[in-house]
Design brief:
The complex is a heterodimer of chains A (210) and B (380). With 210 residues, chain A is of the alpha/beta class. Chain A is 32% helix and 25% strand. The longest helix of chain B has 17 residues. Classes of the chains: A alpha/beta (210), B alpha/beta (380).
Chain lengths: 210, 380
Amino acid sequence: MNAEVESVENTRFDLQIIASWIKPESRILDLGCGNGDLLHSLKQHRQTHGTGIELSENKVARCIERGLTVLQGDFREEVNDYPDLSFDYIILSQTLQQVMEPEELIPELLRIGRKVIVSFPNFGHWRIRLQILFSGQAPVTDQLPYEWYNTPNIRVITIRDFKRFLRIAGVRLAREVAINTHHHDREGHIIKNLTNLRATYGIMMLERPA
Amino acid sequence: MTEKNASPVRVEKKFFTFAEPPDEMVLDSGARLGPITLAYETLGSLNDDKSNAVLILHACSGDSHVAGSYDEDDKRPGWWDNMVGPGKPVDTDRYFVICSNILGSCMGSTGPSSINPATGKPYGFDFPMVTIKDMVKAQKHLIDHLGITKIMSMLGGSVGGMQVLRWCADYPEMVQSAIPIATTTRHSAQAIAFNEVARQAIMSDPNWRGGNYYDDPGPDHGLAVARMIGHVTYLSDESMRSKFGRRLQNRSTLSFDFNGDFEVESYLRYQGSKFVERFDANSLLYITKAADYFDLERGDGNLLVNDALADIRFLVISFTSDWLYPTYQSKNLVSALKKNGSDVSFCEIDARWGHDAFLMPNEQMDKLISGFLERMSYEC
């Protein structure tokens, strides 16, 4: 097991931002945790008590093998069993665009967790806008590398759309960052202005209204 | 995991007797039983702070011989030798492994074939009904005797998994972590139904004689049929198709009689007759009944939904083709444990071997168990 050598710096840039928002020793639920890179680095660097939910048997086995707590299953069903406020943070990184009913999921997550951190590819990025404008075809980018007929991403979300949804749903936006990434999303920088045009990802921390 | 050429692991069957009259153990039914002997085996060594104990719970017809061999003549290693041993997932170089034969069995522990001190004859059907709770209570006497107050991890499949869960419900303070495999929180109607057919096969054998057959030829035929039924439930449609298909046994054409044409018939007959050599029919009646009585959701809610279980770490494992204890039953278990805030992991392994999959060598299960135990060894 050489898992110990991995660090926050080697993970995806959006996950580095998310990790920086997490307080030490907090209880984390990572939805769609994959091979558990984020959970592992949070456990190493922030001493968190994390649980992941993941659909793929092989990824679940990889997580458990490296000493993480992970449930195999569909997180839309798995989240329903938890009592209220079971977690300090619930992380939904780059998964929202694949969720069938975000309108129902987000309130449910805010029931079982104090804060929900969401990151998603921004469909409002200028490159995507130009692709539609000039080619007349569904856009294919580094962040959304699929054709319309094989993509798992059933939702197109822009940063502006998501914020509008939060207002309608009565969810408080506690924190937000927009980022522009490159090098397979492992590096990037924070965008301050014209975020919906320039950012490849939006990252937001949600809370129930006070 | 290398030791193909390593020297064989030697184990010894030991016995622990307790509950001597007048201090008999009070059973779930209210009856009293004593003295009670448990056969058990250990591998590895207990560390100084007694924090590396791993308790393995065997299934219905298993025994204490979990791994290794007794001597040079012992051709068959223990029943989970692929999982337990030096450098194996349950690494006996690091952990102190204990496995005891369950109460009610016939492989060294007290059961219906044991001598009733009141009569000097085997108990037969005078043996009181024992439950999974009683089996676990007896094991706790053994663990206390070994001077262990907290078990690092306990694991078992099937009826062994029921014991794991019963341990957590009854003695949560003694359990650091638990690995229930291919098991359930309550026996389903389907599982009870198969057990009842197995029991009827034994009890309708004229040689059964109300359970008092120890001086005469026993109900061998009934017991063999019971085992054949059991085996069907341990396999799966897919595993039978790939293992036997419709292949004929030692013949090229149909016989047009009832001597058995198909390989699957021959296999079941062989399993049945082999079982008769080593197992007591009454023990099978008692143990299957104990499994049928198992229900952690009886009465005032689920016994696993309890704050006392919040500190136990769980790894729940099921198999895709297991139709005796299907995955939904493991998911119900996970769902209950989540309510406690317990640290619970769950993996459904894709395997075609049916319920038997938990005993077959499986790389995925090896990884899960070794990784989980590794974590437990530094989290305790």
